[in-house]
Structure formats: C-alpha cells, structure tokens
Design a protein that fits this description.
Blueprint: H1 23-47, H2 55-64, H3 67-121
Helix pairs in contact: 1-3
C-alpha cells in the first residue's frame, strides 16, 4: 500500500507538535477503515442490487403517481453514493497506511541515530 515515498504526509504542520504517533495504531485504524469500506461497497453492490420496484408492486395508482420511477431512482442514487463513499474510505485508509509508513521510517531513523550516538560515547 506504500509507494516508497516517505515524505511527511502532513507537511510541516505536525513538526514539533508534541504528539506521539504509534504506527501500529495507524495500521489497526487502516484495517478498520478498509473493513468499513468493504461493508459500504457490499451494501451498494450486492444488498441493493436486486432492490427495484415494478408497476405490479405498487398498483395502478402508484404506477400513475410515478412511485416506481422515484423509488428506483432513489435506489440508484444510494448505490452511486455508496460507491463514491467506498472509494473515499479506501483513499482514507491508504492515507493512514502511508502515514504509518512515514512514522515507522522516522522511528527507524531515530533509533539508528540514538544507536550511533551511543556507540560514539562507548
């Protein structure tokens, strides 16, 4: 999920902020967001796939009032929104994963610097 680009995804906004970031917590959040994405997509693609009205379902008055068209348009709109929402959740999860990559790289660099300092003093 990482493209190897380990630039700070937050720019300089987080530098020196005093916050501690735990990459493993970001990874867990990433998994949760991907799971949410999958549920949203399943709802739109599978659960709503067979939901449709026909004129026979609503009778002559319902058909004349346009209930079938309105209902089917609403379902199509919901399916479109779930597809877009799923895509956005996927992008969010990818961003969390990229942030975890960045902070893991920073942790490794900090560890190396500390180890090198310790060796220099030894």
């Amino acid at each position: 999920m990482s493209d190897g680009d380990f630039t700070n995804p937050f720019g300089t906004a987080a530098a020196g902020s005093g916050f501690e970031v735990y990459p493993q917590a970001l990874r867990a959040a990433t998994d949760d967001v991907f799971a949410a994405r999958d549920k949203v997509l399943k709802f739109g693609q599978e659960d709503l796939a067979q939901v449709a009205l026909r004129d026979d379902d609503v009778g002559m008055l319902g058909a004349h009032a346009g209930v079938v068209e309105m209902f089917n348009n609403a379902i199509a709109h919901i399916r479109d929104k779930t597809a877009k929402g799923g895509m956005q959740l996927g992008q969010c999860a990818e961003a969390l994963d990229k942030a975890a990559d960045y902070y893991e790289t920073q942790d490794e660099a900090d560890f190396t610097r500390l180890r090198d300092l310790e060796k220099g003093r030894g």
